[in-house]
Amino acid sequence: MARRSLRSLNPLLLWGFVLWAVTYIGARLAIDHGWGGSGGGKVLLALVPLPFFLAWLTGLVREFTRMDELQRRIQFEALGIAFPLTLVLVMTLGLVEAARPLDPDNWSFRHVWQLLVLFYVVGLFVARRRYRYDA
Amino acid sequence: MKTRVRELRGERGWSQAELAERLGVSRQTVNSIETERYEPSLSLAFRIAGVFGATLESIFQPDVNASRE
Q: In terms of CA atoms, which chain B residue is nearest residue A68?
């Protein structure tokens, strides 16, 4: 993706992400602090970030349609690297968990998404490097 | 694949940004095509040929050494 100013960025992409992150952190803190009463209220709290996530996702899809073919290829290669890494991580975690119970606070599948983001960033770095700008 | 995009662009005195604007792609795409890191799709190759007023085969040639490997 070409470097662009924040002002030219798709507003759904920018504000969708900001609002999703804020509501996600807020919902997480609220649930951890026991807000929302019984189970139903907590589930509602857990669903609050979802519309903002969907808005961000819509912005992301629109952003893909604005990309040219090389930029799409870079995204494809980044995902092509991230996906097998994710597969290996999930399968390895599954095997290790079958061998001995993992600490749910550190190795729960709740935390795996952070590594998925990391794998995507690694894939993006590798793909961008392949097509880096040369004078 | 060998390409003459850089040569043809130079003849016209266009910058990579200018060619990218004419083709509706990013400057990174033009650069990657010129440095032969990226082979354009057929539709983009036709657009490149159209912008230069040349035929496809006069701009892009198969890399003979690569095809022998």
A: B25
